[in-house]
Every structure is written in C-alpha cells, then in structure tokens.
C-alpha cells in the first residue's frame, strides 16, 4: 500500500487530519467490498501522484472499524469518496461525493484537488 495514504483508525484521527491539512480526500471502504478492492490500487496511485504534505492528503476509513465517522458523514454505500476543504465537505467537479468504484470521476477529482494544492504551494513560495 502507498505510504501516502493515511489509514484512519478513529474519528479523532480524522478530525486531526482535517485540522492539519487544507484538502482531504477520504475513501470510506469495507474489507468485504469487491468494488472497494478493485479501486484501491487506483486510489493509491492517485495519492502517490497528488499528495502534498499539509495541503492535500488522501485517507482511508474502514466503515466497519470507524463506524462513528461513517455515520457522521452519512456513508450508505461502499466505496464512498468524499472531499473536504478545511474540514468541511465540498463538491469537486460538481460532486460532493462519488459512490461506487468510478475511476474516471475519482481521477478527475484527484487531478482537480492536486491542481488546487499546487496553486497553494506556488502562492506560498511567491
């Protein structure tokens, strides 16, 4: 697995990530879910390509182990990908979430977030 992905084990850990990172993409998944397993390598590749420490993080939340986080965010299907800016859920490319293994939509969302993260890096170094 990619060491760029943050494996969240509690709601407090997810909240800490939100408070320390501007943009966060979260994969709510289950071990028993075949579509979750199918898209996992794609998510890992996107995390490796687009992660920017402190600005853009990719996280995975196992809905069976961190049930309160799944409930808090209204996760009803796996996988569900959600996007956050400064701890608030936001729409990326017009979608607040992606449900199901949709590599095209997920790739487009990661590309958009990666672009926003790079702009933030460039602005900070200007």
Provide the descriptors you would attach to this structure in a database record:
4 helices, 6 strands, 44% helix, 6-stranded mixed beta sheet, alpha/beta, 126 residues
Q: How is this structure best described in words?
A:
The structure is a single chain. Strands 1, 2, 3, 4, 5 and 6 form a 6-stranded mixed sheet that branches. The radius of gyration is 13 Å and the shape is globular. The termini are far apart. The protein has 126 residues and is of the alpha/beta class. The model has no long low-confidence stretch (mean pLDDT 95). Strand 4 and strand 5 (88-89) form a beta hairpin. Helix 2 packs parallel to helix 4. Helix content is 44%, strand content 23%. It has helices spanning 11-20, 34-50, 67-72, 103-125, and strands at 5-8, 23-29, 56-62, 80-85, 88-89, 97-99. The longest helix is centred in the last third of the chain and has 23 residues, at 103-125.
List the helices and strands and how they pair.
Elements: E1 5-8, H1 11-20, E2 23-29, H2 34-50, E3 56-62, H3 67-72, E4 80-85, E5 88-89, E6 97-99, H4 103-125
Parallel strand pairs: 1-3, 2-3
Antiparallel strand pairs: 2-4, 4-5, 4-6
Helix pairs in contact: 2-4
Can I get a quick summary?
With 126 residues, the chain is α/β, with parallel strands linked by helices. The protein contains four helices and six strands.
Which sheet architecture does the biggest sheet show? 6 strands, mixed
Q: Helical percent range?
A: 40-55%
Instruction: Supply the helix-strand structural class.
Output: alpha/beta
Mean pLDDT equals 95
How many beta-strand segments?
A: 6
Number of distinct helices: 4
Radius of gyration: 13 Å
Question: How would you sum up the global shape?
Answer: globular
């Amino acid at each position: 697995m990619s060491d760029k992905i943050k494996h969240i084990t509690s709601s407090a850990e997810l909240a800490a990530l939100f408070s320390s990172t501007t943009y966060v993409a979260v994969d709510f998944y289950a071990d028993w879910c075949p579509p979750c397993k199918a898209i996992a390598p794609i998510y890992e590749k996107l995390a490796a390509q687009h992660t920017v420490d402190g600005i853009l993080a990719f996280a995975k939340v196992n809905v069976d182990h961190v049930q309160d986080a799944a409930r808090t965010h209204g996760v009803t299907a796996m996988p569900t990908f959600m996007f956050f800016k400064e701890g608030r859920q936001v729409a990326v490319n017009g979608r607040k979430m992606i449900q199901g293994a949709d590599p095209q939509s997920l790739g487009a969302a990661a590309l958009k977030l990666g672009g926003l993260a790079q702009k933030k890096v460039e602005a900070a170094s200007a």
